[in-house]
């Protein structure tokens, strides 16, 4: 069971309970109840799944930020929180060496998740296969000489 969905289930149940006290029910009210029931069913289906590593409902398979409130590196910056300063004397090569030797969690704890993410992005970046300015577009003369 994934307990991260329990607040959403509780909110849907409270909204549905409020409808029980209404005296007049219109077609629009019935549509609203049906929509809320669908949201509650979706939350229950999510709760039946496994717990995600980052506890994020928007990015369940996303990267983990241990310092973010919900553990999500993608959503974490949306919630203001003081970031771990990136050590000024370290380079991405230092971060990658530590990452390769000790793993993601240890590197994120030592250098911070932003430094680890930046170093991994630099590692995976492909060099530009054609350095320099782009070639000019072909002209009609160059097309006739082929």
Overview of this protein structure:
The chain has 146 residues and is an all-alpha fold. Helix content is 49%, strand content 0%. The radius of gyration is 26 Å and the shape is flat. The mean pLDDT is 79.
Keywords, separated by commas or semicolons:
mainly alpha, 6 helices, 0% strand
Question: What is the structure about, briefly put?
Answer:
This protein is an all-alpha fold.
Describe the protein's topology:
Elements: H1 6-19, H2 27-48, H3 92-102, H4 104-111, H5 113-124, H6 140-144
Helix pairs in contact: 1-2, 3-4, 3-5, 4-5
What are the secondary-structure elements, in order, as H or E?
A: HHHHHH
Backbone CA Rg: 26 Å
Which of globular, elongated, flat, extended, rod-shaped describes the shape? Answer: flat
Unreliable runs, pLDDT <50, ≥5 residues?
none
How many DSSP-defined strands? 0
Helix content: 40-55%
How many H/I helical runs?
6
SSE class: mainly alpha
Tell me the major beta sheet: none
**Please, what is the average pLDDT?**
79
Distance from first to last alpha carbon: 66 Å
Q: What proportion strand?
A: under 5%
